[in-house]
Amino acid sequence: MDRALDSDEPPADGSHIGGELPYILAGLGAACLVSMGLMAINSLTSFLNQRRQHMEAHRDIERLHVVQGDIVTLETLDSTSPAENYKFSQYSELRPSLQSHALETLELCAICLEVFQNSETVRRLTCKHLYHQQCIDRWFQGRHLTCPLCKSIYVKRQGSATAS
Prior knowledge:
mainly alpha; Herpes Virus-1; 2 domains
């Protein structure tokens, strides 16, 4: 019998390598294609995220655009959201026995995080969020034209029927 056919060892002349080479090359080619596909997906995802962020920023700029000639002052804020004295909720005053629920009914300023006290001067914006007058005025003077909580525009501009 022929010894080369009975042996599990590869032939010494290296002829066995030629039979496995196409499989090795196909595997390497597939790995390259998969890695290029993953890089393409990653690049596309990154591009789409950057484009989305750019479009959101552009919309924000358009939304906050102040037409030339408009003068936005504290008087503008006063006309849109006049200052008023805070009055503690009547519901809480009617039920003093519900002391355990008192913390749930307290309103606080989202800027300074202080609880409103009776008769403090506050502003209720058109979106119905409530702030201390000093807090929201400072926010406004920092050139913010949106509510700190919901980002709705609260400054009425000339020619606008309402602030949204």
